[in-house]
Amino acid sequence: MFTDFEKLRKKIDLKCKSLHAINEKYMVCKKGCDECCMNFNLLPIEFNATLDAIKLLDIKINSNSAPNACPFLVDHECQIYEHRPIICRSHGLPILTMDEEGENWELSFCPLNFTNTDEDYFEAEKCYEQDVFNSELYMINQDHSSLTGIDPHEMSDLHQLAERYSSERLKRK
Ligand code: SF4
After folding, report:
1. 71-106 pLDDT, tens per residue?
2. Pocket around ligand 1 at a 6 A CB cut-off
3. Which of 14, 38, 51, 156: CA 20 to 30 A from 5?
4. Calpha distance 77→48 (Å, rounded)
5. pTM for this prediction
6. H helices within 55-121, ranges in order?
7. Closest ligand 1 atom to the C-alpha of 87?
8. Where are the domains of the chain?
9. Ligand 1 atom closest to Cα of 40?
């Protein structure tokens, strides 16, 4: 049921790997630097695929995490790294998103990275075009909703994923 989602995630991983290699010189991401880890929203396909991948694992959860923080971040380590959401895979890279009018790309990046660059540095080949991949995710989410009857717009977040994971774990005991 999650084959297309997994294919997309692999494609994104390959893209992010090549962008890391291109931008490595200007990126200072390291363990313990995790301000980009937040309570992200998930579409139904991503929520269900991630729950399916982690449901049989023993994962630590930070049950005291703030509402806007990710509960899977424990001692500065992602507890679901291999299965982390798509948005987490581009952490630290220069990101291009389409503006509201759908006419121009807008650039964003972590202020800790790229401190010795100027605007000319950010050619499109060096950036992660987020909406290109989000469009593919959107289509896969539509297919998933047609199969399952789940409202494609029903968003959940990482706290809800942690709660579902914890309740599935309790059922297993
Ligand atoms: S899932 Fe992992 S990488 Fe994503 S925000 Fe949470 S701790 Fe960070």
Report:
1. 999 999 999 999 999 999 999 999 999 999 989 999
2. 37, 70, 72-73, 78, 80, 84-85, 88, 158
3. 38
4. 22
5. 0.93
6. 86-89
7. 4
8. 3-166
9. 5
Q: What is the b/e burial string over 138-157, where b = at least 16 CB atoms within 10 angstroms of the residue's CB?
A: eebbeebbeeeebebeeebb
Alpha helices per DSSP H over the chain: 3-23, 44-54, 86-89, 130-148, 158-172
Place of tokens 């890391």: 20
44-54 helix and 3-23 helix, angle to the nearest 10 degrees? 90
CA distance readout (Å), 135 to 30, 129, 147: 30, 11, 19
CA distances from 172 to 57, 72, 109, 162, 167 (A): 11, 20, 41, 15, 9
Do residues 88 and 78 lie in contact, with contact meaning Cβ atoms separated by under 8 Å? yes
Task: Report the nearest-CA residue for atom 2 of ligand 1.
Answer: 78
CB 158 within 8 A of CB 59: no
- Bridge partners of 42, per DSSP, are 156
From 30, 80, 83, 159, mutation site for ligand 1 pocket: most ligand atoms within 8 A of C-beta? 80
Q: What are 23-77's pLDDT values in tens digits? A: 999 999 998 999 999 999 999 999 999 999 999 999 999 999 999 999 999 999 9
